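Researcher: Sequence recovery benchmark, item below. Answer with residues only.
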């Protein structure tokens, strides 16, 4: 059995997300356009955006949330998106979103003065912070008193049959995924609504709440599901370094195996925690 590589989060995730930034952007824009990213959409609603606001987009990726936020706060307001993955920031800058700018930055060490922003958002990014407490303290520090913070965080939903089938095929063909050695505490907290509420309170936020949102995703076919999953960070990390022929063999096997159980469209359910609070 191949040995699992263990890396620090900040050595693992920025590298993977940078390499697969374009595929990530394409997949996320598609699910946003189809109304399937309900957690992220709820984040935007909870911020209560108005023209002229200055908003921070934490772990912004390619700027997928930055765009609708910028539309609501412009032209007199601005969004600043930050991410540790240089490839994501390069892609966000290339997109040229009006009233938005982007910087490579660690959300645990924000390079902004205290009380710089009117709101802060984070779409599916907090789970990658090895020191969640520090990230939340920093978010609170750069927000003005009374400003709103909202973040969506995916909750483990891997027990559904399509994902079990995928896991079986992945394990047949691919080496183990690298593991972040400093993630356990953060993952436990974000998956527990009460623990997440406590983390927000400890960071100095008030009137906090965590909503549980179910997200249904429709895949047109087994082939589409496999194709999209190949750009997810965990599967992408297992495909890195795999020969083209073995990669194609895995793809064919995964699609054929899924199609035997799901010959047409496939629906999967995900669950998201949406945390929001007042600074």
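Model:
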């Amino acid at each position: 059995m191949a040995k699992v590589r263990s890396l620090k989060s900040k050595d693992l995730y920025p590298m993977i997300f940078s390499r697969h930034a374009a595929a990530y952007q394409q997949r996320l824009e598609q699910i946003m356009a189809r109304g399937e990213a309900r957690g992220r959409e709820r984040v935007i609603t909870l911020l209560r955006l108005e023209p002229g606001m200055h908003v921070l987009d934490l772990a912004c990726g390619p700027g997928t949330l930055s765009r609708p936020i910028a539309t609501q706060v412009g032209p007199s307001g601005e969004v600043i998106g930050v991410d540790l993955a240089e490839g994501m920031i390069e892609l966000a800058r290339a997109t040229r979103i009006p009233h938005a700018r982007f910087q490579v930055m660690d959300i645990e060490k924000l390079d902004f003065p205290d009380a710089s922003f009117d709101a802060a958002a984070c779409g599916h990014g907090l789970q990658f912070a090895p020191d969640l407490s520090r990230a939340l303290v920093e978010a609170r520090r750069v927000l003005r008193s009374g400003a709103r913070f909202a973040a969506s965080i995916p909750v483990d939903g891997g027990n559904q049959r399509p994902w079990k089938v995928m896991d079986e095929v992945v394990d047949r063909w691919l080496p183990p995924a690298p593991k972040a050695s400093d993630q356990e505490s953060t993952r436990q907290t974000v998956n527990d609504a009460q623990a997440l509420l406590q983390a927000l309170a400890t960071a100095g936020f008030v009137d906090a709440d965590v909503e549980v949102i179910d997200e249904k995703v429709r895949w047109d076919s087994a082939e589409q599901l496999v194709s999209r999953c190949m750009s997810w960070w965990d599967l992408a990390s297992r495909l890195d370094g795999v020969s083209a022929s073995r990669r194609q063999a895995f793809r064919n096997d995964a699609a054929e195996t899924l199609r035997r159980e799901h010959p047409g469209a496939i629906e999967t359910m995900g669950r998201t925690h949406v945390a929001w609070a007042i600074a």
